[in-house]
Write a structure and sequence with these properties.
mainly alpha, Four Helix Bundle (Hemerythrin (Met), subunit A), about 0% strand
Length: about 200
């Protein structure tokens, strides 16, 4: 007999329930931040508008396209696993990892641009601005930074599961871990879909 996989003894429904509970806590976390953003925007509409013009919409739009495409590739990877197409699953997971890494690189360029202009928390340039602008960029770096951390965690999880698929530890018979990773990656995508219009489009 082969060695038990990482899901041995773990009911499929129990694993998915745990993931959905985790997703609920993440929704509450970011939901609170969205409410905080809305409250500050209500009190400083003109300054939030002015600050939003400092963001690079091209980078924001490009990153949105990258994440949406990565969400599609992870769906296709889970589907390929269900069809027991190991090589296709590995290739699609590799594509997802590459797209996730590209998202972080693009975000790094965007943050670098803001740092070059002194638009980062506690910088002398930003502190000399109006209060609403200071709040805007504080929220921008906190919320996009927290999201980037989630992307980084997701990349680590997907890379680990890619290795497990390659070793046969995750397969069509034991798909729960990859399915849960897919759910987490969709959460990362959905959070960005809310962040993108809040910071880049609503002016």
């Amino acid at each position: 007999m082969g060695e038990p996989g990482p899901e041995a003894g773990l009911p499929s429904s129990g694993g998915k329930l745990g993931m959905w509970l985790f997703i609920c806590t993440e929704v509450l976390l970011f939901g609170g931040l969205f409410l905080l953003y809305s409250a500050y925007r209500f009190h400083h509409p003109a300054e939030f508008h002015e600050a939003s013009l400092e963001l690079n919409r091209f980078f924001g739009t490009l990153n949105t396209s990258v994440l949406i495409t990565s969400s599609l590739s992870v769906v296709l990877a889970v589907h390929a696993l269900g069809e027991n197409r190991k090589a296709r699953t590995l290739a699609l997971l590799a594509v997802t990892l590459a797209l996730g890494a590209a998202f972080l690189v693009i975000k790094g360029f965007e943050w670098g641009e803001k740092f070059a202009h002194g638009l980062y928390p506690n910088s002398p340039v930003l502190l000399a601005q109006a209060k609403g602008k200071v709040l805007y960029f504080g929220l921008y770096f906190m919320m996009t930074g927290l999201h980037a951390l989630h992307v980084l965690v997701g990349l680590g999880v997907l890379a680990t599961f890619l290795a497990l698929v390659a070793r046969g530890r995750i397969s069509a018979e034991r798909p729960v871990l990859l399915e849960n990773a897919g759910l987490y990656w969709h959460l990362v995508d959905i959070i960005w879909i809310f962040l993108f219009p809040l910071f880049y489009l609503i002016t």
